[in-house]
DNA sequence: GCGCGAAAGTTGACACCGTCTACCGACAAT
DNA sequence: ATTGTCGGTAGACGGTGTCAACTTTCGCGC
């Protein structure tokens, strides 16, 4: 438990590393605790001394993914201009998704352990989301149109999910039959980022929808 | 023997219905073929006479989800105005996600069977995507700025994933601590739809829009 | 040094699971 | 009447998560 216990906690780290390797190799849903143990040359119960269940090791891995992701967002090129800063965060997002595809995929795997059972994982996820949220908040506040919390969530999730969709497309084989130039692939996610900016820098169409209030 | 009184293919349909029920009850990843058989009062091997594997019954269920989804999109209120038609498709999308949450969730479950193993599922998925894609294509073509195939994919996926993100937020418990009014929840997805429209009615940053005030 | 108690690791069991194989009755076509 | 296919049953195999009991290891107060 203490920092000095170094060697004692070795197996815990080894389990996480090996589990990540297995997920990369055969997929998240086919990861098994016994396989982790087998590959590490320990008994099938040894990992259970460090993780209460299969879901707990998964939650720990996903927590680290979110933490690394948050670090990447924080390490963006800062700018005093909120729009430029928001764009920089988007660029950092895209770079992370391309540099750490496995972590990125895990963050959005729908086979998550039940969230309320793994508060640490949720804390890290919300922390990463909070960074994006803050960026959106600053963006709108600088334009003199601050958002209510629920509106803020909505705009932030809009940005997040839009970017996620484009980034995911690059990972899928849906594009391979189109055999695009590598340059085009590189531009896809940034294109979406531009679209998000377009959506934000433009106030919603006031006339079209039935009722629009509370600006 | 219990359920065998009906027609020949009855068990196949019963398996699908029961599997859906189980997924709704305990989740996709905990669905088991033996449980399906047990609840139907047949032997644990009976379902295998109709589905080659667990993945095959899943693929069939997801295929139907995409088919129903495509039907819902097609049943939208049609309009000659491409922008209005696109908006109507978005409304239909949101309505489907709210009316058939289980089907909707399955369409985006990341624990999909390997796609190339289940071509029928992929055909249905691409068919549904094609509807959205066509809507985007008409939208841009009507504005006199037709898109290349790869650009079209990008814009369509941008719209899809943006809407998906907002719709998913409603299903998650991320919003419960905010205890929003039901009316606000109702508006969330439509708000995103407005944002997508805002992003599309504006040409990319390179060239300014030529006053296309169709609204 | 010693002893001890907790932690780490092992072994064994249990109840599941997917799926392969073999068997069996009904029934249709030859 | 024979044959073959189809839908269903029964059993087995290897795999899984995880509980329980056991043994080993190791840090720490004496």
Structural overview:
The structure is a homodimer of 215-residue chains. The first copy, chain A, is mainly alpha-helical and 215 residues long. The first copy, chain A, has 2 domains: 9-51, Arc Repressor Mutant, subunit A (Orthogonal Bundle), CATH 1.10.10; 55-201, Orthogonal Bundle (Tetracycline Repressor, domain 2), CATH 1.10.357. Chain A has 8 helices and no strands. In chain A, α1 crosses α2 (33-40) and α7 (149-171) runs antiparallel to α8. Chain A starts with 9 loop residues before the first helix and ends in a 14-residue tail after the last helix. Mean pLDDT of chain A is 84; it is low at 1-6 and 203-215. The structure holds a DNA duplex (30 and 30 nucleotides).
Most extensive chain interface and residues per partner? A-B, 45 and 45 residues
**Helix vs. strand class of chain A:** mainly alpha
Overall tally of domains of chain A: 2
Distance between the termini of chain A: 51 Å
Secondary structure layout plus pairing:
2 copies of one chain form a homodimer.
Chain A: H1 10-26, H2 33-40, H3 54-74, H4 82-99, H5 101-107, H6 119-142, H7 149-171, H8 182-201
Chain B binds a DNA duplex (30 and 30 nucleotides) through helix 2.
């Amino acid at each position: 438990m203490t920092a000095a216990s170094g060697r004692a906690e070795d197996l815990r780290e080894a389990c996480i590393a090996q589990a990540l390797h297995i997920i990369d190799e055969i997929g998240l849903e086919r990861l098994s605790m016994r396989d982790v143990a087998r590959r590490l040359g320990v008994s099938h119960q040894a990992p259970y001394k460090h993780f209460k269940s299969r879901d707990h090791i998964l939650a720990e891995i996903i927590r680290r993914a979110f933490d690394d992701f948050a670090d990447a967002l924080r390490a963006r090129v800062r700018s005093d201009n909120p729009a430029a800063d928001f764009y920089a965060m988007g660029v950092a997002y895209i770079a992370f998704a391309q540099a750490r595809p496995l972590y990125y995929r895990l963050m959005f795997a729908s086979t998550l352990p039940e969230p309320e059972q793994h508060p640490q994982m949720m804390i890290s996820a919300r922390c990463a989301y909070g960074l994006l949220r803050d960026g959106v908040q600053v963006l709108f506040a600088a334009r003199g149109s601050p958002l209510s919390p629920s509106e803020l969530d909505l705009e932030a999730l809009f940005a997040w999910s839009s970017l996620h969709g484009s980034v995911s497309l690059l990972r899928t084989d849906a594009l391979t039959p189109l055999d695009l130039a590598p340059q085009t692939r590189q531009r896809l996610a940034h294109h979406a980022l531009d679209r998000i900016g377009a959506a934000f820098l433009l106030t919603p169409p006031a006339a079209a929808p039935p009722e629009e209030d509370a600006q």
